[in-house]
Amino acid sequence: MAFAQAIVQAYQARAMDPARALEQAQITPTQLRDSDARISSGQLEALSAAAMRELDDEALGWFSRRLPWGSYGMLARASLSAPTLGLALARWCRHHALLTDDILLPMADHIAMALERCRRGIRLPNPLQHDIMVMFPDEYRIAEQGLHAIEREEGLSLPPEEAGYLSLHIHAGISEQNAGDSLTNIRLAADCIAKIETELGISLRRTELKYTRLISHVCYMILRIRAQEEVPLQMDEYVRKMYPRAYQLAEKLCKALEEKLCLPISSAEVTLLAIHIQRVL
């Protein structure tokens, strides 16, 4: 009965009356109120079909936006021509994400493709593996546990690089960023660190604290720039005079970021970056 009650909640959310659909499914109000009651698969099918048409939502209110009648038929037709089940599922997940991003179907898509690569002996390198681990340590630990679970279920050992990619999908599920944006931000931050190393003639070990602090700052700086958040800091002249080399480099990096992001970067962000650069000198 819990499924029927959930469908009725979708009606209530839309301020609509489920009486007609319940009557077609032969479910009485008394039965509906009894959480321990049982209905047949035929009744649930009748209720679901009626509700999908009346609500014009094949997801029955499960997602933040409606999936109009015919959505799943479209997904099915897009997947039927796939030569393998794995490719069919990958298509379904990819196309479902175009309709709604409430659930982590892109991660399921990635796992399916990762398993296919593993069966073919193809290994996808992840040059940002350590940076992802630094930025999303909790997500990375969960991703590692996920790799162990996949190995138990599928009998295939995915390479450790996949933990980095899965971390991005997990982060996407608990934030407003999608995995692609997270990867882009980390790649931009890693490029900034590489330029800092080149300009200063230094080599930072990825495991040391000052590297972690620096790349974390650059990543969050990029997030602030994208969100156009203000930084309440007024130390520009002081930092420019005290740390001229670091400030000049920060200006150069921020100018390059402005061109890549097509967004303005405040002088306060330049100052903060200069302070962090000075820490690694």
Mean pLDDT: 88
- Give the helix tally: 15
Structural shape: elongated
Number of strands: 0
Portion in helices: 55-70%
Query: How does the helix and strand content classify structurally?
Result: mainly alpha
Strand content: under 5%
Distance between the termini: 66 Å
Radius of gyration, CA atoms, in whole angstroms: 26 Å
Main beta-sheet strand count, sense and barrel state: none
Order of helices and strands: HHHHHHHHHHHHHHH
Low-confidence stretches: none
In terms of quaternary structure, what is this?
A: single chain
Annotate the secondary structure layout.
Layout: H1 2-13, H2 19-24, H3 29-33, H4 41-55, H5 71-80, H6 85-99, H7 105-119, H8 129-135, H9 137-154, H10 161-174, H11 179-200, H12 209-227, H13 236-242, H14 244-261, H15 267-279
Helix pairs in contact: 1-4, 5-6, 6-7, 7-10, 8-10, 9-10, 10-11, 11-12, 12-15, 13-14, 14-15
Give the gist of this structure.
With 281 residues, this protein is mostly helical.
Q: How does this structure look, described?
A:
By secondary structure, the chain is mainly alpha-helical. It is 70% helix and 0% strand. The chain has 15 helices and no strands. The chain has helices spanning 2-13, 19-24, 29-33, 41-55, 71-80, 85-99, 105-119, 129-135, 137-154, 161-174, 179-200, 209-227, 236-242, 244-261, 267-279. α13 (236-242) packs across α14 (244-261). The termini are far apart. The model has no long low-confidence stretch (mean pLDDT 88).
Question: Features of this protein?
Answer:
single chain; 281 residues; mainly alpha; 15 helices
